[in-house]
Amino acid sequence: MPHLHKTILNVMLLFFLIFSYSIAEEDIFSSYDEALSIYKIDPKKLESNSEKVKLYDFKRSQYPKIFRTFQKYADEGNYEAMSYMAQMHESGWGTKRDFGMALHYHRIAAKNGANDSKLYMSYYYLTGKGVMPNFFEARELLESLESDGDARAYINLGNIYEKGLGVPIDMDKAFAYYKKGADRNQPDCMYGLGIMYFKGISVEKNYKKAFELFKKATDLGYDYGYYYLGYAYTYGKGVSTDFVKAIDSYWRVPGYSSIGIFQRCYISQNIYGNGNYSKTFDLCRFSVREDGYCAENWMGTLYLDQGTYKGVEKNTDTGISYLKKSADKGCLDANINLYFYYRDGKHVTANKAKAMAYYQTINSLLYTDSFDKHTKRVYLTIEDYYGRPYIYNWLNQEAAKGHKKAQKILRLIKENEKYNQ
Fold first, then answer.
1. How confident is the model at residue 45, as a pLDDT?
2. What is the DSSP string of 42-85?
3. CA distances to 294, 335, 339 from 354, in Å
4. What is the pLDDT of residue 79?
5. How far apart are CA 89 and CA 86, in angstroms?
6. Using the 8-state DSSP alphabet, how is residue 317 labeled?
7. What is the pLDDT of residue 344?
């Protein structure tokens, strides 16, 4: 009887193992390619937002099964599957987020020729994410990618030489890498090459060529190019001035509140300032909400300058309050406005001490170190940053007093203007 009991238990155990195995087999995809095809579906390519949401939801529901499939094939020596598994560890898709595991598997996969992992590891070495920065290792991995014919290497190879990461700065090499990538339809390289044409780095300045590259990059989904498109439409760089297209482009700039949001409000005053005042107000209010650079300054001027923006009811206290908030955040325009207001008694009671305090702030904000650190991504060129009429007048006033930095900036503007003809 004990033997029969033991036999029954063994049969039950065997049945349980077989049943568990069959469930596990059903809980992965029938093939690696099937899992990969679902993993690589891009919902952004769909037109309908509702369809995008449905596809995103479907992908999320499949992530655990995709992960288990990749894990199975990685265990069998498929290093591409291991690379995708590492990506899922890093993102927390279908498994617990674990950057340590992601790094572990990326290292193994990269050493065994998986190009995605080479790309990830090169990024980690360039940025110091999870590892000590190592520009040499990053460059070796990227050069290995390039020799494998993987065009994704070109953007960071270009960055390495443009920024001098472990090598001497070499703009010609940077230009060559961006061009190789652009020729291989890499939108990030088109963007990088466009900047070089726009600024005349290692090539003759060519705004039309730059515009074409930015346009092609955005058409391929590289949305950062929209800022330069907006800038080109605003200032007529390589294309006819078109403020409506400029604002449309600025709306599409991703992530940078200090760029697109600022320009939307600033440019809207040129477009709508003498007509659609409610549109101007709405755009500036949005800029304030998103904490755009100088947003409160533009909002304040709407409340103060009723004669210009008749669609907004004049409110001096509200207008000055907005300007003060903007000045406290380092907006040059707001500090200049408040300096003149307190000096001349416009909108406020004249106050020499307050005027001088804003004067000191202006001097700390106005010069090239501030341009490089604070506003370079808002105003792309020195002449655009310093060339606004009241700032230009300020510089002339200070230069006439013998202010060396003001004199230097005026010389820079004059030199730059020669290249913008």
1. 81
2. -GGG-S-HHHHHHHHHHHHHHHHHHHHHHHHHHHTT-HHHHHHH
3. 20, 11, 8
4. 97
5. 5
6. H
7. 94
Q: How far apart are CA 81 and CA 75, in angstroms?
A: 9
State how far the Cα of 42 lies from the Cα of 19, in Å rounded to an integer: 35
How buried is residue 149: exposed, middle or buried, by Cβ count under 10 Å (0-12/13-18/19+)? exposed
Q: For tokens 């501030």, name the residue.
A: 370
The pTM of the whole model exceeds 0.85: no
Greatest Cα pair distance, the chain, in angstroms, is 112
187-199 and 171-183 helices cross at what angle (nearest 10)?
A: 140
Mean pLDDT per segment of 10 residues, for the chain of length 421 residues? 46 39 63 95 84 90 96 96 96 95 97 97 94 96 97 96 94 97 97 93 95 96 87 88 82 61 62 60 76 81 68 84 92 88 94 94 73 54 64 84 84 59 40
Single out the residue of 167, 103, 102, 163 nearest to residue 140, CA to CA: 167
Q: How far apart are CA 286 and CA 267, in angstroms?
A: 14
Domain boundaries, the chain: 32-150
C-alpha 237/C-alpha 207 separation (Å) is 5
Q: For residue 254, what is the DSSP state? A: -
pLDDT for the residue 416: 56
Q: Residue for token digits 């300058």? A: 305
- May I ask the CATH class of domain 32-150? mainly alpha
Q: Which amino acid is at 160?
A: I
